[in-house]
Design brief:
The structure is a single chain. This protein has about 170 residues and is α+β, with helices and mostly antiparallel strands. It is about 30% helix and about 40% strand. The protein has a domain of about 100 residues. The protein contains 4 helices and 7 strands, in the order ααββββββααβ. Strands 1-6-7 form a 3-stranded antiparallel β-sheet. A two-stranded antiparallel sheet has the order 2-5. Strand 3 and strand 4 form a beta hairpin.
Protein backbone atom coordinates (compact mmCIF):
# COMPACT_ATOMS: atom_id res chain seq x y z
CA UNK A 1 0.00 0.00 0.00
CA UNK A 2 2.83 2.42 0.84
CA UNK A 3 4.56 1.63 -2.48
CA UNK A 4 1.38 2.43 -4.40
CA UNK A 5 0.87 5.70 -2.51
CA UNK A 6 4.51 6.71 -2.98
CA UNK A 7 4.29 5.88 -6.71
CA UNK A 8 1.13 7.95 -7.01
CA UNK A 9 2.73 10.92 -5.23
CA UNK A 10 5.79 10.71 -7.47
CA UNK A 11 3.57 10.60 -10.55
CA UNK A 12 1.54 13.58 -9.36
CA UNK A 13 4.72 15.50 -8.50
CA UNK A 14 6.29 14.68 -11.86
CA UNK A 15 3.11 15.70 -13.70
CA UNK A 16 2.95 18.98 -11.82
CA UNK A 17 6.64 19.61 -12.55
CA UNK A 18 6.37 18.59 -16.21
CA UNK A 19 3.31 20.59 -17.07
CA UNK A 20 3.02 23.04 -14.22
CA UNK A 21 0.83 26.11 -14.15
CA UNK A 22 0.45 28.07 -17.36
CA UNK A 23 1.84 31.56 -16.89
CA UNK A 24 2.43 34.63 -19.00
CA UNK A 25 6.08 35.47 -19.70
CA UNK A 26 5.85 38.36 -17.24
CA UNK A 27 4.49 36.06 -14.50
CA UNK A 28 7.11 33.41 -15.31
CA UNK A 29 9.82 36.04 -14.76
CA UNK A 30 8.11 36.95 -11.49
CA UNK A 31 8.15 33.26 -10.47
CA UNK A 32 11.94 33.38 -10.85
CA UNK A 33 12.18 36.19 -8.27
CA UNK A 34 9.20 35.46 -6.01
CA UNK A 35 9.20 31.69 -6.35
CA UNK A 36 7.70 31.08 -2.90
CA UNK A 37 4.53 32.92 -4.03
CA UNK A 38 4.13 30.18 -6.65
CA UNK A 39 4.60 27.31 -4.19
CA UNK A 40 8.21 26.63 -5.20
CA UNK A 41 11.11 26.07 -2.81
CA UNK A 42 13.58 27.21 -5.47
CA UNK A 43 13.35 29.29 -8.64
CA UNK A 44 12.57 27.45 -11.91
CA UNK A 45 15.55 25.79 -13.57
CA UNK A 46 16.28 23.74 -16.68
CA UNK A 47 14.44 26.39 -18.69
CA UNK A 48 14.08 25.64 -22.39
CA UNK A 49 12.53 28.20 -24.72
CA UNK A 50 11.21 26.77 -27.99
CA UNK A 51 11.21 29.18 -30.90
CA UNK A 52 10.07 28.55 -34.44
CA UNK A 53 9.96 30.82 -37.45
CA UNK A 54 8.25 30.61 -40.86
CA UNK A 55 8.85 33.15 -43.63
CA UNK A 56 7.05 33.20 -46.97
CA UNK A 57 9.33 34.94 -49.44
CA UNK A 58 9.85 35.30 -53.19
CA UNK A 59 12.86 34.17 -55.18
CA UNK A 60 13.57 35.32 -58.72
CA UNK A 61 13.68 32.67 -61.40
CA UNK A 62 15.31 32.97 -64.79
CA UNK A 63 13.63 35.70 -66.83
CA UNK A 64 11.54 34.60 -69.77
CA UNK A 65 11.57 36.31 -73.12
CA UNK A 66 8.28 37.87 -74.10
CA UNK A 67 7.01 39.56 -77.24
CA UNK A 68 4.50 42.34 -77.53
CA UNK A 69 2.71 42.90 -80.76
CA UNK A 70 3.57 46.13 -82.51
CA UNK A 71 1.70 47.68 -85.40
CA UNK A 72 2.18 50.26 -88.07
CA UNK A 73 -0.45 51.70 -90.32
CA UNK A 74 0.00 53.79 -93.43
CA UNK A 75 -2.68 55.89 -95.02
CA UNK A 76 -2.11 57.14 -98.53
CA UNK A 77 -4.30 59.22 -100.83
CA UNK A 78 -3.88 61.69 -103.65
CA UNK A 79 -5.63 64.89 -104.59
CA UNK A 80 -4.97 67.08 -107.61
CA UNK A 81 -6.81 69.91 -109.34
CA UNK A 82 -8.28 67.32 -111.74
CA UNK A 83 -8.62 64.00 -109.93
CA UNK A 84 -8.53 62.24 -106.63
CA UNK A 85 -7.30 58.85 -105.42
CA UNK A 86 -9.32 57.88 -102.39
CA UNK A 87 -7.15 57.42 -99.35
CA UNK A 88 -6.50 53.86 -98.31
CA UNK A 89 -5.05 52.37 -95.16
CA UNK A 90 -2.32 49.77 -95.26
CA UNK A 91 -0.94 47.49 -92.55
CA UNK A 92 2.85 47.60 -92.58
CA UNK A 93 4.57 44.56 -91.11
CA UNK A 94 7.09 45.31 -88.37
CA UNK A 95 8.92 43.15 -85.85
CA UNK A 96 7.35 42.58 -82.45
CA UNK A 97 8.84 44.23 -79.41
CA UNK A 98 11.01 41.75 -77.48
CA UNK A 99 11.68 42.14 -73.77
CA UNK A 100 12.61 40.11 -70.73
CA UNK A 101 9.93 39.30 -68.19
CA UNK A 102 10.88 38.60 -64.56
CA UNK A 103 9.41 35.47 -62.96
CA UNK A 104 9.32 34.64 -59.27
CA UNK A 105 8.52 31.59 -57.15
CA UNK A 106 7.27 31.65 -53.60
CA UNK A 107 9.34 29.79 -51.03
CA UNK A 108 8.78 28.92 -47.40
CA UNK A 109 11.78 29.21 -45.07
CA UNK A 110 11.37 27.52 -41.69
CA UNK A 111 13.59 27.38 -38.63
CA UNK A 112 13.01 25.95 -35.17
CA UNK A 113 15.34 25.64 -32.21
CA UNK A 114 15.21 25.16 -28.46
CA UNK A 115 17.31 27.60 -26.45
CA UNK A 116 18.47 27.07 -22.87
CA UNK A 117 17.96 29.98 -20.52
CA UNK A 118 18.12 30.72 -16.83
CA UNK A 119 16.08 32.86 -14.47
CA UNK A 120 18.76 35.55 -14.13
CA UNK A 121 18.93 36.00 -17.91
CA UNK A 122 15.15 36.15 -18.28
CA UNK A 123 14.53 38.46 -15.31
CA UNK A 124 17.12 40.91 -16.70
CA UNK A 125 15.57 40.73 -20.19
CA UNK A 126 13.27 43.73 -20.69
CA UNK A 127 11.43 42.54 -23.80
CA UNK A 128 8.67 40.03 -24.43
CA UNK A 129 9.00 36.32 -25.18
CA UNK A 130 8.28 37.16 -28.82
CA UNK A 131 11.17 39.64 -28.89
CA UNK A 132 13.48 37.16 -27.12
CA UNK A 133 12.79 34.45 -29.71
CA UNK A 134 13.03 36.94 -32.58
CA UNK A 135 16.47 38.11 -31.41
CA UNK A 136 17.74 34.54 -30.96
CA UNK A 137 16.38 33.37 -34.34
CA UNK A 138 17.64 36.46 -36.20
CA UNK A 139 21.10 36.03 -34.69
CA UNK A 140 21.23 32.32 -35.51
CA UNK A 141 19.95 32.75 -39.08
CA UNK A 142 22.17 35.82 -39.58
CA UNK A 143 25.24 33.77 -38.66
CA UNK A 144 24.12 30.71 -40.62
CA UNK A 145 21.38 31.31 -43.25
CA UNK A 146 21.61 27.64 -44.29
CA UNK A 147 20.14 26.70 -40.90
CA UNK A 148 16.73 27.41 -42.41
CA UNK A 149 14.86 24.74 -44.32
CA UNK A 150 13.57 26.03 -47.64
CA UNK A 151 10.84 24.56 -49.78
CA UNK A 152 8.83 25.72 -52.80
CA UNK A 153 5.17 26.47 -52.16
CA UNK A 154 4.21 25.93 -55.79
CA UNK A 155 3.11 29.53 -56.36
CA UNK A 156 4.73 31.36 -59.29
CA UNK A 157 4.36 34.92 -60.53
CA UNK A 158 5.01 35.74 -64.18
CA UNK A 159 4.89 39.50 -64.01
CA UNK A 160 4.29 40.07 -67.73
CA UNK A 161 1.77 37.41 -68.63
CA UNK A 162 -0.98 39.87 -69.50
CA UNK A 163 -1.32 40.74 -73.17
CA UNK A 164 -2.97 43.86 -74.58
CA UNK A 165 -6.74 43.53 -74.50
CA UNK A 166 -7.35 44.18 -78.18
CA UNK A 167 -5.56 45.25 -81.32
CA UNK A 168 -5.32 48.90 -82.15
CA UNK A 169 -7.83 50.30 -84.57
CA UNK A 170 -6.71 50.69 -88.15
CA UNK A 171 -8.78 53.85 -88.54
CA UNK A 172 -6.60 56.92 -88.00
CA UNK A 173 -7.43 60.54 -88.56
CA UNK A 174 -5.22 62.77 -90.62
Amino acid sequence: MIKILLGTLMLVSFSAFSYGEKLSFKKFKDSCVNYTNYGYQQPPSEIVISCSNAVYDWEQLEDSEMQAETSRFLKAGLISNKNKVVAKEFDIEIDPYNFMCPRFKEILKTFAQDFNANCTELVNYEGSLKEWCLEKINTTIGENPEAQQTQDTGRVIVSCKNKPLNRRSTTHQR
